[in-house]
Design a protein that fits this description.
The chain has no helices and eleven strands. Strand 5 and strand 6 form a beta hairpin. With about 130 residues, it is mostly beta strands.
Amino acid sequence: HVQLVESGGGSVQTGGSLRLSCAASGDIYRTYCMGWFRQAPGKEREGVAAIGTDGVTTYADSVKGRFTISQDNAKNTLYLQMNSLKPEDTALYYCAADPRPDWNGGPCHARSPYEYWGQGTQVTVS
């Protein structure tokens, strides 16, 4: 069992920055994908960014060039650096983890299903 806890959300002005953190605990998998997702009121959950065991990243077109996903393996922590924030970035942000025992070296993508999910942290841009 893996537990994920997000932090770092809050309110920020348009054009501002926030860094979200996701602390992971529990079983550690040798190969995995980790991702950030978000859901705004009245909208479906959407993938934001993903990172694999090898550190290769992918991003949704809407955040490419503004957001950066990273991980600190020693601290078992996932990050999302968000710059140039826009009101349309307002959402509840979730981190997620998915073991990939059959990983073939390809990139991870922030798409459902992921196995483990955090409870979310709110980001509001105005």
